[in-house]
Design a protein that fits this description.
Blueprint: E1 4-7, E2 13-16, H1 21-33, E3 38-43, H2 49-61, E4 63-69, H3 79-94, E5 98-101, E6 107-111, E7 115-120, E8 135-140, E9 143-147, H4 153-161, E10 170-172, H5 183-190, E11 194-197, H6 209-217, E12 221-224, H7 225-228, E13 231-235, E14 240-244, E15 249-250
Parallel strand pairs: 2-3, 3-4, 4-5, 9-10, 10-11, 11-12
Antiparallel strand pairs: 1-2, 6-7, 7-8, 8-9, 13-14, 14-15
InterPro entries: ComA-like_MBL, Competence_DNA_uptake, Metallo-B-lactamas, RibonucZ/Hydroxyglut_hydro
Domain Metallo-beta-lactamase: 1-201
Protein name: Metallo-beta-lactamase domain-containing protein
Amino acid sequence: GDAIFISTPSQKKILIDGGGPEGGRSVVQFLNRNNVTSIDFMISTHAHPDHVSGLTYVLKDIKVINVIENGIDYKSPVDEEYDLFLQFKKLSRNETDQFYILKKGEGLKLKTEEIEFHVYHPNVDSPHLNDDSLITYLRYGKISFLFAADIGERGRTVIAENRFFPPVSVLKSPHHGDYVPADNFFLDYYKPDMAVISVGQNEQGRPDTECLDLYKRKEIKIFRTDVHGTIKIISDGEHYWTFLKNGQQYPNQ
């Protein structure tokens, strides 16, 4: 699943997805370990359990001020996962200060002197829930990030064709590193220097070999949570540094 935590220079806290049930417990432990007592913006990109289930654990344990989601339900065939989703819906509406549903084509933008933060629901004609994922763009100075959730073939095509955001420094790889034919066009527009693939053990064999090969051909540096564990990126607005769980540091870009 996915779970991305962002702390801005002014100490705003943003959480994009929370992983599955086990991931959610790990996210809460991480937040407690880092003395995070509240989340300013919680973003549920879509209702698949490997993204939303963990957010329920966060809502139970930590104060959340704003929740943003796409309003599209999904009934998991696994009872525990569906129960966690129902709890997420109840807690996000009743235990937070503000709740936003972004419909297709709608976005929410926050701009300060230091950052630009934009959450968007692509207007994609697709039968797949993944293509309704909320995507998030974050810019701090000269460094920018695109968190592409699980958008698929149509979603990647639309956000590249319509140039929703400028090219970025770092890409959170869509859908755990799967490959779709639109990837070449998508990457040619967004031109990331680095891609982070959020993935664990899975039956689909992700990340796809074609995805990894394409990143390598385009000289995009790859980091994977199944290989490197938790990945930490620090930026001063001019450069960024990547730190891995084993303490290894990669130089600024």
